[in-house]
Task: structure prediction
Amino acid sequence: MRDLSLFSLAARVLSLKMTGEVGPRTFAMLLAHFRTVDNILLAEVEELQELPGIGPGRSKAISAADNNLDKAQAVLDYLEASDTEVVSCLDERYPRILTELNDPPLLLYYQGRLPADDEKRVAVIGSQEVSAEGIADAVDIARRLAERGVSIVGGLARGIDTAGHMGAIKADGATYAVLPCGFNQIYPAENQPLANVIVKTGGLISEHLPDTPVNSGRLLGRNRLIVGLSRAVVIGEVSAASVGTLDAAQCCHELGKLLFVLVGERTSHYNKLFDYGAIPLTSPEDIELVLKALV
Result:
């Protein structure tokens, strides 16, 4: 029997993910049954097969995960040497607020730092194609929040997300960018300089290995982490094409988090947000409403 204590918790979880293709929901089921990640790794094929949704092929793959612990640890050691830290959902450093999700990531990769559990955080997000006024308002509200000690969360996307990060940086505040890809595939590429600054003021966070490219599923999957890490969400200007913004609003609704929308001239594109219970902010000066949500 291998001495599993020679490998970090993150390596043990990564081996299950890489070899057994274990995702958040399967991992939760396995952990509920076996109690510890070590017990999962040492489980016999026959015992794994008894669990719902795990057939012969899947059980063999999960059972083989302990044979790839050296590979998983080598991956993590390489990442650490390149200034990328990794934390598993079982580690104390893992943001507890993410455990409120139905599918919290098994692993978080980060550069810079992770948010502290007692940190006040607000997401500032919105459309990529926006007006100059929309950008200015998003920068302004993020700056005002950061000046009051609130960290800003976004997705490093063009438009409102970028403006939110910039507003926090203008106020010498902290900001966190959740990526829909790995750190070696920054999206959009033109925001690489911004990503470099964010690492120094807060952190870049991803649930994907560094070479993972962006795709539509990962873009939407990122939204639950942006919302999950935040105590409240402020949506800036939106457009008819704001699928991701609406998805984030739905996440807010499902998690019971307060949702605010910064409206100038109200358009029909805001209607769905109000269906999700969004509270209108008529200008960036209305941040007191947002701050009250953080008490």
In short: The two ends are 50 Å apart (CA to CA). The chain has 13 helices and nine strands.
